[in-house]
Design a protein that fits this description.
The chain is an alpha/beta fold. It has one domain. Helix content is about 35%, strand content about 10%. A 7-stranded mixed beta sheet has the order 3-2-1-4-8-5-9. Strand 2, helix 5 and strand 3 form a beta-alpha-beta unit. The two termini are about 30 Å apart. The structure holds 2-acetamido-2-deoxy-beta-D-glucopyranose (NAG).
Length: about 325
């Protein structure tokens, strides 16, 4: 069983290297329960309505981003939440101006080119912490769309939309067999901050940090912790973490020097932050949904508590 799954996961990694190489996007979407009959007004009133789709872009073709969003919004379960689109542009004034011209987002922010999409996701969670919508979703690749189509629902707590793997506390996984272990020494520490325990041998990880998360899951952590993690992207050059430690460098590993170390740590830390770490999540999510039976809602995701009336039914 394990051998077959490893093969499938490796195949998926190859596919995604082709489809998402330069993309830097996170969509944080919030579903204000599509099944409106089950949704009570008091809860809706105290939180932002509609899924947040958070997109972090650098200098990607803005038309492609728009086309991607159109496909995303054509998914019934997503559209039914009346999502709000947040675009964070890191590619400079020219790309910001172009994005404003097209004006398909509800909010557009020009932000410094720091920390790729992971910095953006943390930035968004910190900015909206008190009024998070029901769901937040990060990503920008094709696999995400099929998983949203088949598996996303009101009880979705945390679901990987890109690669879902079994990671070790050093960030090693079967998806990157060619890179030695030991590349992500801070992953262990972020785990400890998030879970309050030492990092176990291995856990399910969303590998490239593309996921949909519910407000309930995001609120498992304090705003202070998200702020702290966000701050790590911008520590000054003389900060002790930079001077003495390997926060921004891969350590005892053959992972390329220029890869963003802390960004990679963050990509693999959402599972601990959102308490969705059971390796079975990864084993039941070894391929995109067209290729395997993904009809069970428990596949690929952690569900939040909820009664049957919350609309766990097929999407
Ligand atoms: C985290 O998940 C585990 C396993 O599903 C569960 O037993 C535990 O109560 C969860 N912790 C929190 C804080 O929700």
């Amino acid at each position: 069983m394990a051998a077959r799954e490893v093969a499938a996961l490796t195949f998926l990694a190859a596919v995604c290297l082709l489809c998402a190489a330069p993309a830097a996007a996170w969509s944080s979407s919030t579903t204000a329960h599509r099944h409106s009959l089950a949704f009570t007004a008091p809860e809706a009133a105290s939180h932002a309505p509609g899924m947040h789709i958070v997109i972090s872009m650098y200098q990607e073709d803005i038309m492609q981003v728009q086309q991607y969003l159109q496909r995303l919004l054509s998914i019934h379960s997503v559209a039914a939440t009346r999502p709000r689109i947040f675009l964070y542009v890191k590619g400079g004034p020219e790309f910001f101006a172009r994005a404003r011209e097209l004006s398909f987002a509800h909010e557009i922010h020009e932000v410094p080119n720091i920390g790729r999409e992971q910095e953006t996701y943390l930035r968004h969670v910190v900015a909206h912490y008190e009024r998070l919508p029901q769901h937040a979703l990060p990503n920008y690749e094709e696999n995400m769309l099929s998983r949203l189509q088949t598996l996303f629902g009101p009880r979705t707590g945390a679901m990987g939309l890109g690669l879902t793997a079994v990671c070790t506390c050093e960030g090693h996984s079967q998806l990157w067999p060619e890179w030695g272990a030991g590349g992500f020494i801070r992953l262990r520490e972020v785990w400890a901050l998030a879970q309050g325990t030492l990092c176990p041998h291995e856990f399910a990880c969303f590998h490239n940090g593309f996921l949909v998360a519910s407000r309930a899951r995001l609120h498992l952590q304090t705003k202070k912790l998200y702020e702290y993690l966000l701050g790590l992207f911008t520590t000054s050059a003389d900060h002790p973490l930079r001077v003495n430690e390997f926060l921004y460098k891969h350590h005892t590993s053959n992972i390329p020097e220029e890869w963003p170390t802390f960004g990679h740590v963050m990509e693999r830390s959402w599972n601990a932050l959102l308490n969705c770490t059971d390796v079975n999540i990864a084993y039941s999510c070894s391929a995109v949904c067209e290729q395997e039976d993904c009809t069970g809602l428990e596949h690929c995701q952690c569900l939040d508590e909820g009664s049957p009336h919350d609309g766990v039914a097929p999407i």
